[in-house]
Amino acid sequence: MKTKHLIPLLLALFLALPFRAQALDQNEPTIYVIKKGDTLWGLSERFIKDPNYWPNMWSKNSQITNPHFIYPGQKVRIFPDRLEIVPTPNSKTAAAQQKTIKPDIVQEVAEEKLFPIRGNEGFLLENGTKPFGSIISGHHDRVLIGVDDMVYTDIGAINGVKGGEKFAIYKAESAVSHPLTSEIMGKKIVPLGTLQLTDVERTASRAIITRNYQEISPGSYLLPLRENPRREVALKMATIDLKGYIVESATGTGIIADGDIVYIDLGSNHGAEPGNMLYVVRDVKVDQRYAEGRVERLPQELLGALVILETGKKTATALVVKSIDAIYKGDKIVTAPK
């Protein structure tokens, strides 16, 4: 009786072995070797079809202190739902790997990620900075002005301009104060549209509205229009350690998420440059009821990332490219979380 029951059992186990082995093979990761030109953004888009995944690697891969800091020869484990950087012992080992390891999976290089500037992001007009001019009235004293309407400005030949020159139109909103220090960072400037000068007198000019994003009215600020306001910014590794704060969002909403434009308290005076990517982090408070003084600081909570699009002297306009959790005005931004 025992043999009679044992044979079917062994047969069942034998038949199950190939399926078990196949299941194990499916869980084995594919190994990809990073080549020159690869980025975490590109690898995420290429292998797991989610270009926004890579910030999730930060908290799981402590050796990645900058999302742009990957190098040829470094290995990546590719699972169906995630990527993992294979740790390397030291820089010498990494250099040796670069010479000895050959890419064994994919020969194509992931494309660099570019971030668009559309020209309607706005910025902070810093203290002491003045607009080039302003709209002083609409044709026939019109208060609400749109495309193809005529307006008059206080920009004239005395300012070195001539007919045909183009200007960007902005609305100045309330002053923005720093969420921690209460220092006035500047006025939030909202893009309204563009105009082109048609007739120029000594101290004034007539112009035509060529584009409008919002309704335009007398008193709107004017600044020289860039030749190519719609352009792209590529990732650029920060050359120095940057630390600052988000001071305001373009929309003024309380919760900030992917795709939102924000203004930060870092500018060219601090070494910030367009293309720099910064982590958004938040300090986690230690509950001393349980730590009893044994723990001084907890690892920072990683909230997301932003890329600087344009810089002023003390402030910059940035695009939030990833939000793992809700981001708020006053959250910290750093080049590397701790």
UniProtKB/TrEMBL annotation:
Start and end residues of each LysM domain: 30-78
Keyword Signal: yes
The entry's keywords: Signal
InterPro entries given in the database record: Bact_Kbp (IPR052196), LysM (IPR018392), LysM_dom_sf (IPR036779)
Signal peptide region: 1-23
Domain of life: Bacteria
Name this polypeptide is given: LysM peptidoglycan-binding domain-containing protein
